[in-house]
Amino acid sequence: MKPVASTDVVKGRVKRRIPNAGAELSAMWGWRIMDYTDQRNPIPLNAGCKTEEAAWRSLDKRGVVR
Fold this sequence. Notes:
This protein is an alpha+beta fold.
């Protein structure tokens, strides 16, 4: 079985690809990772997840690069 990387490792990998990424909790969508390069119009990078950790992992797994 493959070992699971810690949240800090996963978050670090995403932050290297997208330096302005940040997590946002929304009542409608749940946890989403947003690209805050444009502060007035942040771009959602993934669909909502139940936990912040799951949101970072889903983005890391997809390999999104902005």
